[in-house]
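Hey, can you fold this one?
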Amino acid sequence: MTRIDSSPATAFDGITGRDSIGGGIPIPTLRSRTAYAPAALERDPGMPASSWRLRSDAWEYLRFAVKRLATESDTADALAADGEVHRNLRALETIELYWAGFGQRYVAAIGELLEAGDYRTALDRIGRVVNRLRHDTVPDEPRDEFLDEQERAEFTIDSDPRPRFEVLVVDETTSQDRDGLRTEALRLRGPADDFVYDYVVVPSADDAVAAVLTNPNILACVVRPGFSEHTRQKLSRDLQEAIRLARAEVVPGAAPARSSLASVQRVLGLADTLAAIRPELDLYLIAGAHIEDLAGALTRRFRRVFRREDQLELHLTLLRRVSHLYDTPFFSAIQDHARRPVGVFHALPVARGGSVVGSKWIRDLADFYGLNLLLAETSATSGGLDSLLAPTGAIKKAQDLAARAYGAKHTFFVTNGTSTANKIVHQALMAPNDVVLVDRNCHKSHHHAVMLTGARPAYLEAYPLNDFAFYGAVPIDRIKQLLLDYRAQGRLDEVRMITLTNCTFDGIVYDPERVMAECLAIKPDLVFLWDEAWFAFAAFHPVTRRRTAMAAAKRLEQQLGTSAHAAAYRAQRERLFPSGGETPGSPAADDVWLAERLIPAPDARIRVYATQSTHKTLTALRQGSMIHVYDQDWVRDAEEAFHEAYMTHTSTSPNYQILASLDIGRRQVELEGFELVQRQLDLATSLSQAIARHPLLRRTFRVLTAHDLVPAANRDAGRPMPLRDGLASMWQAWATDEFVVDPSRITIEISRTGVDGDTFKHEHLMDRYGIQVNKTSRNTVLFMTNIGTSRSAIAYLIEVLVKLAERFEEARAQEDPDVLVAEETLMPPLPDFSAFSQRYATDGVLPDGDMRAAFFRGQQRGAVEHVSPAELAERVGRGEQPVSAGFVTPYPPGFPVLVPGQVISAEVLDFMAVLDTREIHGYDARRGYRVLRPEA
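Sure. Predicted structure:
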């Protein structure tokens, strides 16, 4: 039998130290097989360090290895199995400390059975764990006599259909105390409870951080002051570094009045760390003599303070709090409406299936979608259903719960996509002739919104990735320079808002906290709109969350209130205004401002908006989107205008099914979002590694990394794919680099296939194998994983890529390689925004212009002519400056190459000539470009 080369047993270095045993319980040495050299199996560098996979694979491989021990007669295979057993037992003995259910003693007991040669009993015990992890059923009563009563009771959980979660307890306890705690939890469990839970007990603050980083089932944490500071587990360097980073980056909160005791400070520090890692966790404190004082002082950190004897109250509180996370007010209202007998006398014939179920011709609609869809359809806003335009009941509560989940102060549901969400925010915040700094390659909805509001866009240029035919993101020094230019021209007061795409279609992610801080240092009342259409999932992972707009706004607000920030601000102002403090007109040269990482004034206003296509990356029906608001001036400066804009763009007949899906999708991410996102990132890393390591695939395809997608000047000299090296490596990159790459997106360079991206997408992936992708460029294909991606789907994609690589390699062997090289060199550079024509430019010095005037002139009969690409090229060659009459938007990627009033340049025409997308909005291939006629 051939040994598996990439055994996950060796990959547990991501959780445990190599050859180390955590927890102090010895793993027995298997008799007669100690000669096996563990170094024979080296660490698999491609195995991600996500604990859900490490744990499940460890039990799977342990079962496989024990089966081999029980059945193999070959000495070499038996020795290999012995080595795998050893490493898996060591890894699991550490991992199981951070999960409820089986625990370290269970693992040690399996080791003792193996030491005694009782492989069959050990295999039975291992199988129970594997079945639970697979969500299969196992016998309610274990067949062997080896389990104690505590472990025997554990198996009753598997037959309980109620949702199950885990509660972390941080305290230095004995094994007897831990058993007593779990026994008490089982005793308190009642048949009327909606949920069941079990305890994970860890002794130290380090172990608490490790637990919440590795165990997504934990939904609450109970802190007892008796915990120690550092772990006795022999963890890997990666996990140790992740713990250090997590504990080091917390912004200190205000300490209570009676906080001189070191023990209180330790408790506060741990609470702040856990809340920063997993905001969805509920924190509770078990206190002693000073419980009355602590109850008032620690309210911000802990939901409630208990005494040790209050076990029943704690039990009820845990269940009640999870029920609040589980609550879906609008989805429940829809369900209730569907069950009620009602008479329909409003303008919706399809309601209750009235026009469908009795029809001879369209009854298949109900057969296909199900009767519940029709029973839930209504145009009523009463009876508990609420109105989206003026919500006061179920919808309002659902939106408030979403704000809690995403870290916003206010959240609004949108049922016609993020394109509309963007227009709502622009209209609410911008007025005619306000200047908005706009990412040049942002989604077309922003450009349309600018036109509708009458604001003047000043376009920011993202760095181009000419080798791959798409743009990156806008470097911070370009944003700062443009703001400084407006200041130099005396027009900074006209700049109202900055809008940027985070993350981009191709996965380039900004550092919103840095961008907002440095911009606010130049103009302290700027408003920020972050288009996070593709980034909604990021709020539910401790590393990706820090780069979401809402998390960045909250963190920035906390920092502005600290004394350390005020001191740093004063020190920097002395350097930036060397000849008179803050005297107007005496700032240092722009080079000084660009070289420093600017610090905003403590009284700068945090005004942040984020639009998210929830349906793109989380559970929601198509067009389900959200607007998140973190605006300190909401009531004074934005609320009324926002509601008017919301009324303008929101249908009076919103789709209730979309609203219900947004509501229940919020429930999902609060209860299991961390697990789903962690799995998504892990699977994406597995895909990239499979392509990079497979001999055939790496000859045909190339995975683009941060080194390809982010210029060296905009990132630290780190690893090209940080998550591949462990959580700590990714954490460090996402904490320091100006731009990072979303690891859930895998961009594959396909030049060696000999076909362009559009052909590869349609003819090879979709038509032949049913693989659906959103985006290609001339020589790249983007594969996006999501929370619904499975390991089987990844395996199928790899299988398809192997088949295609074989096909392309056969075809390539018969082609002249010089032809391919010649084709690659024909790709022109990506065009920058040329300029607004002189008629629509504001002042000829700064880049903003009156796009709205150009747009409406382009709607006038007789003001527009259609010109072919060839004739336009001739005009440009003669030195003319033809002006675009409308938007020209290739889709994907969905941003306009031309906007109304823009000068049509040779660079734009060259780029359009080789564009491989089949869908271009605003361009008629038969008639040509729409061009404004010169005015008399």
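The longest helix spans residues 656-693. Let me know if you want another pass with a different chain boundary.
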